[in-house]
Amino acid sequence: MSATDPASTTAPQRSPGTKPPRRNKSPRRIESPRRIHGIGAVLVTIYAILAIGATSRAVFQMLTEYSVAPISITLSGLSGVIYVLATIALILPGRSWYRVAWVTISFELLGVITIGTLSLLVPNIFADMNSVWSYYGFGYVFVPLVLPVLGMLWLRRHRPGGNPALSRNTGSAGD
Amino acid sequence: MISWYADIEIAVAVLAGLLCLVLGLVGRKPGDLTMGAAALVELFLVAQLVIAIVSPLVGNSPTGSLVEFYLYLIAALVIPLLAGFWALVERDRWSTVVLGIACLAIAVMVVRMNIIWTVQIA
Protein backbone atom coordinates (compact mmCIF):
# COMPACT_ATOMS: atom_id res chain seq x y z
CA MET A 1 0.00 0.00 0.00
CA SER A 2 1.19 3.50 -0.73
CA ALA A 3 2.01 6.19 1.80
CA THR A 4 -0.81 8.35 0.49
CA ASP A 5 -3.36 5.85 1.71
CA PRO A 6 -5.06 7.63 4.66
CA ALA A 7 -5.99 4.34 6.29
CA SER A 8 -2.42 3.10 6.44
CA THR A 9 -1.15 6.22 8.25
CA THR A 10 -3.72 6.04 11.04
CA ALA A 11 -3.75 2.28 11.47
CA PRO A 12 -0.47 0.70 10.48
CA GLN A 13 -1.44 -2.66 11.95
CA ARG A 14 -4.48 -3.69 9.94
CA SER A 15 -6.98 -5.69 11.94
CA PRO A 16 -7.28 -9.18 10.48
CA GLY A 17 -10.44 -10.30 8.76
CA THR A 18 -11.70 -6.88 7.74
CA LYS A 19 -10.01 -6.78 4.40
CA PRO A 20 -8.82 -9.71 2.31
CA PRO A 21 -5.36 -9.24 0.77
CA ARG A 22 -5.59 -8.15 -2.82
CA ARG A 23 -3.80 -6.18 -5.44
CA ASN A 24 -5.85 -3.02 -5.33
CA LYS A 25 -4.88 0.13 -7.16
CA SER A 26 -7.58 2.37 -5.66
CA PRO A 27 -7.82 2.05 -1.88
CA ARG A 28 -10.89 4.30 -1.79
CA ARG A 29 -13.06 1.67 -3.40
CA ILE A 30 -12.39 -1.29 -1.20
CA GLU A 31 -16.00 -2.46 -1.44
CA SER A 32 -15.87 -3.12 -5.17
CA PRO A 33 -12.64 -4.33 -6.70
CA ARG A 34 -13.68 -5.25 -10.20
CA ARG A 35 -10.52 -5.97 -12.06
CA ILE A 36 -10.80 -7.83 -15.27
CA HIS A 37 -10.06 -11.51 -14.91
CA GLY A 38 -10.23 -14.58 -17.05
CA ILE A 39 -12.97 -14.65 -19.64
CA GLY A 40 -13.70 -10.99 -18.91
CA ALA A 41 -10.41 -10.20 -20.62
CA VAL A 42 -11.68 -11.88 -23.77
CA LEU A 43 -14.78 -9.69 -23.66
CA VAL A 44 -12.70 -6.55 -23.16
CA THR A 45 -10.42 -7.57 -26.05
CA ILE A 46 -13.33 -7.83 -28.46
CA TYR A 47 -14.71 -4.53 -27.17
CA ALA A 48 -11.35 -2.82 -27.60
CA ILE A 49 -10.98 -4.07 -31.19
CA LEU A 50 -14.49 -2.91 -32.02
CA ALA A 51 -13.81 0.44 -30.34
CA ILE A 52 -10.67 0.93 -32.45
CA GLY A 53 -12.51 -0.13 -35.61
CA ALA A 54 -15.58 2.05 -35.11
CA THR A 55 -13.66 5.11 -33.93
CA SER A 56 -10.97 5.13 -36.61
CA ARG A 57 -13.54 4.51 -39.33
CA ALA A 58 -15.65 7.40 -38.03
CA VAL A 59 -12.67 9.75 -37.79
CA PHE A 60 -11.66 8.88 -41.34
CA GLN A 61 -15.18 9.41 -42.67
CA MET A 62 -15.56 12.72 -40.85
CA LEU A 63 -12.31 14.00 -42.32
CA THR A 64 -13.02 12.95 -45.88
CA GLU A 65 -16.68 12.40 -46.74
CA TYR A 66 -18.79 14.05 -44.06
CA SER A 67 -20.95 16.00 -46.50
CA VAL A 68 -21.87 12.85 -48.41
CA ALA A 69 -23.67 11.11 -45.57
CA PRO A 70 -23.75 13.19 -42.38
CA ILE A 71 -26.34 10.99 -40.62
CA SER A 72 -24.52 7.70 -40.92
CA ILE A 73 -21.14 9.25 -40.24
CA THR A 74 -22.45 10.92 -37.09
CA LEU A 75 -23.84 7.53 -36.11
CA SER A 76 -20.45 5.93 -36.71
CA GLY A 77 -18.87 8.54 -34.47
CA LEU A 78 -21.48 8.00 -31.77
CA SER A 79 -21.04 4.22 -31.87
CA GLY A 80 -17.27 4.69 -31.70
CA VAL A 81 -17.56 6.82 -28.55
CA ILE A 82 -19.97 4.30 -27.02
CA TYR A 83 -17.60 1.38 -27.64
CA VAL A 84 -14.64 3.27 -26.22
CA LEU A 85 -16.67 4.19 -23.11
CA ALA A 86 -17.91 0.63 -22.68
CA THR A 87 -14.38 -0.74 -22.94
CA ILE A 88 -13.11 1.68 -20.28
CA ALA A 89 -16.13 1.04 -18.03
CA LEU A 90 -15.56 -2.71 -18.19
CA ILE A 91 -11.92 -2.36 -17.16
CA LEU A 92 -12.23 0.20 -14.34
CA PRO A 93 -13.55 -0.84 -10.92
CA GLY A 94 -16.28 0.80 -8.87
CA ARG A 95 -20.03 1.16 -8.85
CA SER A 96 -20.19 4.23 -11.05
CA TRP A 97 -18.17 2.59 -13.83
CA TYR A 98 -20.36 -0.48 -13.43
CA ARG A 99 -23.36 1.77 -14.09
CA VAL A 100 -21.62 3.37 -17.08
CA ALA A 101 -20.96 -0.12 -18.44
CA TRP A 102 -24.65 -1.00 -18.17
CA VAL A 103 -25.77 2.24 -19.83
CA THR A 104 -23.32 2.03 -22.73
CA ILE A 105 -23.90 -1.67 -23.35
CA SER A 106 -27.69 -1.20 -23.25
CA PHE A 107 -27.30 1.68 -25.68
CA GLU A 108 -25.30 -0.56 -27.99
CA LEU A 109 -28.01 -3.19 -28.07
CA LEU A 110 -30.64 -0.52 -28.68
CA GLY A 111 -28.46 1.03 -31.38
CA VAL A 112 -27.72 -2.16 -33.27
CA ILE A 113 -31.40 -3.18 -33.23
CA THR A 114 -32.70 0.28 -34.22
CA ILE A 115 -30.10 1.03 -36.88
CA GLY A 116 -30.14 -2.55 -38.12
CA THR A 117 -33.90 -2.40 -38.63
CA LEU A 118 -33.80 1.09 -40.17
CA SER A 119 -31.03 0.10 -42.60
CA LEU A 120 -33.25 -2.72 -43.85
CA LEU A 121 -36.51 -0.71 -44.02
CA VAL A 122 -35.26 2.67 -45.30
CA PRO A 123 -31.78 2.10 -46.72
CA ASN A 124 -31.77 5.52 -48.44
CA ILE A 125 -31.29 7.59 -45.28
CA PHE A 126 -27.83 6.16 -44.83
CA ALA A 127 -26.78 6.99 -48.40
CA ASP A 128 -24.81 3.76 -48.96
CA MET A 129 -22.51 4.66 -46.12
CA ASN A 130 -22.44 1.85 -43.61
CA SER A 131 -21.95 2.27 -39.90
CA VAL A 132 -20.98 -0.48 -37.47
CA TRP A 133 -24.64 -1.07 -36.69
CA SER A 134 -26.04 -1.23 -40.23
CA TYR A 135 -27.71 -4.54 -41.10
CA TYR A 136 -27.33 -5.63 -37.47
CA GLY A 137 -23.55 -5.43 -37.70
CA PHE A 138 -23.28 -7.62 -40.80
CA GLY A 139 -20.02 -5.93 -41.82
CA TYR A 140 -18.50 -6.97 -38.50
CA VAL A 141 -19.71 -10.60 -38.64
CA PHE A 142 -22.65 -9.70 -36.35
CA VAL A 143 -20.24 -9.12 -33.47
CA PRO A 144 -22.01 -5.80 -32.59
CA LEU A 145 -25.27 -7.74 -32.15
CA VAL A 146 -23.86 -10.56 -30.01
CA LEU A 147 -21.41 -8.54 -27.93
CA PRO A 148 -23.87 -6.43 -25.87
CA VAL A 149 -25.75 -9.59 -24.88
CA LEU A 150 -22.53 -11.26 -23.71
CA GLY A 151 -21.56 -8.01 -21.98
CA MET A 152 -24.85 -7.91 -20.07
CA LEU A 153 -24.51 -11.53 -19.00
CA TRP A 154 -20.99 -10.82 -17.77
CA LEU A 155 -22.05 -7.67 -15.90
CA ARG A 156 -24.90 -9.56 -14.24
CA ARG A 157 -22.45 -12.13 -12.87
CA HIS A 158 -19.91 -9.52 -11.77
CA ARG A 159 -21.94 -7.08 -9.74
CA PRO A 160 -19.54 -4.96 -7.61
CA GLY A 161 -20.09 -6.04 -4.01
CA GLY A 162 -23.78 -6.55 -4.70
CA ASN A 163 -24.30 -10.29 -4.62
CA PRO A 164 -21.53 -12.13 -2.79
CA ALA A 165 -22.81 -15.46 -4.06
CA LEU A 166 -22.34 -14.39 -7.65
CA SER A 167 -19.30 -12.14 -7.51
CA ARG A 168 -16.65 -13.56 -5.24
CA ASN A 169 -13.69 -11.48 -4.24
CA THR A 170 -11.33 -14.43 -4.30
CA GLY A 171 -10.25 -13.58 -7.83
CA SER A 172 -10.82 -17.03 -9.28
CA ALA A 173 -8.81 -17.23 -12.47
CA GLY A 174 -11.11 -19.62 -14.28
CA ASP A 175 -14.18 -17.46 -14.23
CA MET B 1 0.95 -3.80 -51.13
CA ILE B 2 1.89 -7.12 -52.69
CA SER B 3 -1.03 -9.44 -53.27
CA TRP B 4 0.67 -12.79 -52.65
CA TYR B 5 2.35 -11.43 -49.54
CA ALA B 6 -1.03 -10.32 -48.21
CA ASP B 7 -2.40 -13.80 -48.88
CA ILE B 8 0.41 -15.43 -46.90
CA GLU B 9 -0.04 -12.84 -44.15
CA ILE B 10 -3.77 -13.57 -43.91
CA ALA B 11 -3.14 -17.34 -43.86
CA VAL B 12 -0.51 -17.00 -41.10
CA ALA B 13 -2.81 -14.78 -39.03
CA VAL B 14 -5.75 -17.19 -39.40
CA LEU B 15 -3.61 -20.23 -38.51
CA ALA B 16 -2.01 -18.45 -35.54
CA GLY B 17 -5.45 -17.26 -34.43
CA LEU B 18 -7.03 -20.71 -34.60
CA LEU B 19 -4.02 -22.28 -32.87
CA CYS B 20 -4.19 -19.84 -29.94
CA LEU B 21 -7.99 -20.06 -29.77
CA VAL B 22 -7.99 -23.87 -29.61
CA LEU B 23 -5.05 -24.15 -27.21
CA GLY B 24 -6.61 -21.47 -25.00
CA LEU B 25 -9.99 -23.16 -24.91
CA VAL B 26 -8.46 -26.51 -23.94
CA GLY B 27 -6.81 -24.72 -21.01
CA ARG B 28 -3.24 -23.95 -22.07
CA LYS B 29 -1.56 -20.89 -20.60
CA PRO B 30 0.34 -18.56 -22.97
CA GLY B 31 3.58 -20.31 -23.85
CA ASP B 32 6.40 -20.15 -26.37
CA LEU B 33 4.24 -21.63 -29.12
CA THR B 34 1.26 -19.29 -28.77
CA MET B 35 3.31 -16.19 -27.98
CA GLY B 36 5.60 -17.10 -30.87
CA ALA B 37 2.63 -17.41 -33.22
CA ALA B 38 1.40 -13.94 -32.25
CA ALA B 39 4.94 -12.59 -32.59
CA LEU B 40 5.15 -14.07 -36.10
CA VAL B 41 1.94 -12.27 -37.04
CA GLU B 42 3.41 -9.02 -35.70
CA LEU B 43 6.60 -9.62 -37.70
CA PHE B 44 4.55 -10.04 -40.87
CA LEU B 45 2.81 -6.73 -40.11
CA VAL B 46 6.11 -4.90 -39.65
CA ALA B 47 7.26 -6.24 -43.02
CA GLN B 48 3.89 -5.14 -44.40
CA LEU B 49 4.59 -1.62 -43.15
CA VAL B 50 7.92 -1.61 -45.03
CA ILE B 51 6.18 -2.89 -48.17
CA ALA B 52 3.49 -0.22 -47.85
CA ILE B 53 6.12 2.51 -47.58
CA VAL B 54 8.23 1.27 -50.50
CA SER B 55 5.44 0.19 -52.90
CA PRO B 56 4.23 3.67 -54.01
CA LEU B 57 7.86 4.68 -54.65
CA VAL B 58 8.29 1.88 -57.18
CA GLY B 59 5.03 2.50 -58.99
CA ASN B 60 2.62 0.30 -56.99
CA SER B 61 0.22 2.95 -55.70
CA PRO B 62 -2.99 2.21 -53.80
CA THR B 63 -6.27 2.60 -55.68
CA GLY B 64 -8.08 3.50 -52.47
CA SER B 65 -7.32 5.93 -49.66
CA LEU B 66 -3.81 5.68 -48.28
CA VAL B 67 -4.93 7.35 -45.03
CA GLU B 68 -7.58 4.70 -44.45
CA PHE B 69 -5.02 2.00 -45.26
CA TYR B 70 -2.60 3.32 -42.66
CA LEU B 71 -5.35 3.61 -40.03
CA TYR B 72 -5.88 -0.12 -40.40
CA LEU B 73 -2.18 -0.91 -40.50
CA ILE B 74 -1.31 1.10 -37.39
CA ALA B 75 -4.22 -0.40 -35.43
CA ALA B 76 -3.14 -3.85 -36.64
CA LEU B 77 0.43 -3.23 -35.48
CA VAL B 78 -0.75 -2.25 -31.99
CA ILE B 79 -3.25 -5.08 -31.36
CA PRO B 80 -0.81 -8.06 -31.10
CA LEU B 81 1.43 -5.98 -28.83
CA LEU B 82 -1.44 -5.28 -26.43
CA ALA B 83 -2.59 -8.91 -26.51
CA GLY B 84 1.00 -10.08 -25.89
CA PHE B 85 1.38 -7.62 -23.03
CA TRP B 86 -1.83 -8.95 -21.50
CA ALA B 87 -0.57 -12.52 -21.89
CA LEU B 88 2.55 -11.61 -19.91
CA VAL B 89 0.59 -9.87 -17.14
CA GLU B 90 -2.22 -12.37 -16.70
CA ARG B 91 -1.04 -15.91 -17.21
CA ASP B 92 -4.17 -17.97 -17.62
CA ARG B 93 -5.91 -19.79 -20.43
CA TRP B 94 -8.07 -16.83 -21.37
CA SER B 95 -4.99 -14.82 -22.25
CA THR B 96 -4.26 -17.47 -24.88
CA VAL B 97 -7.81 -16.98 -26.20
CA VAL B 98 -7.16 -13.23 -26.28
CA LEU B 99 -4.05 -13.84 -28.41
CA GLY B 100 -6.16 -15.94 -30.77
CA ILE B 101 -8.87 -13.30 -31.15
CA ALA B 102 -6.22 -10.64 -31.76
CA CYS B 103 -4.66 -12.72 -34.57
CA LEU B 104 -8.05 -13.37 -36.18
CA ALA B 105 -8.86 -9.66 -36.03
CA ILE B 106 -5.53 -9.02 -37.79
CA ALA B 107 -6.54 -11.44 -40.55
CA VAL B 108 -9.78 -9.52 -41.12
CA MET B 109 -7.93 -6.20 -41.10
CA VAL B 110 -5.36 -7.37 -43.66
CA VAL B 111 -8.20 -8.54 -45.92
CA ARG B 112 -9.69 -5.04 -45.63
CA MET B 113 -6.28 -3.40 -46.24
CA ASN B 114 -5.81 -5.50 -49.36
CA ILE B 115 -9.22 -4.37 -50.63
CA ILE B 116 -8.41 -0.70 -49.98
CA TRP B 117 -5.15 -1.04 -51.92
CA THR B 118 -6.34 -3.09 -54.89
CA VAL B 119 -10.11 -3.18 -55.41
CA GLN B 120 -12.43 -0.18 -55.49
CA ILE B 121 -16.13 -0.90 -55.73
CA ALA B 122 -17.40 2.67 -55.52
What does this structure look like?
The complex is a heterodimer of chains A (175) and B (122). With 175 residues, chain A is mainly alpha-helical. Chain A has one domain (35-157). Chain A contains 5 helices and no strands. Chain A has helices spanning 6-10, 39-64, 70-91, 95-121, 143-157. In chain A, helix 2 (39-64) runs antiparallel to helix 3 and helix 4 packs antiparallel against helix 5 (143-157). Chain B is mainly alpha-helical. Chain B has one domain: Up-down Bundle (Four Helix Bundle (Hemerythrin (Met), subunit A)), CATH 1.20.120. Chain B is 79% helix and 0% strand. Chain B has helices at residues 3-25, 32-54, 66-89, 93-118. At the A-B interface, helix 2 of A face helix 3 and helix 4 of B.
Keyword list:
heterodimer; A: 175 residues; mainly alpha; 5 helices; 54% helix; elongated; disordered N terminus; disordered C terminus; B: 122 residues; Four Helix Bundle (Hemerythrin (Met), subunit A); 79% helix
Q: Measured on Cα atoms, how large is the radius of gyration of chain A? A: 20 Å
Succession of helices and strands of chain A: HHHHH
Global outline of chain B: elongated
Number of strands of chain B: 0
* Number of structural domains of chain B: 1
CATH architectural group of chain B: Up-down Bundle
Order of helices and strands of chain B: HHHH
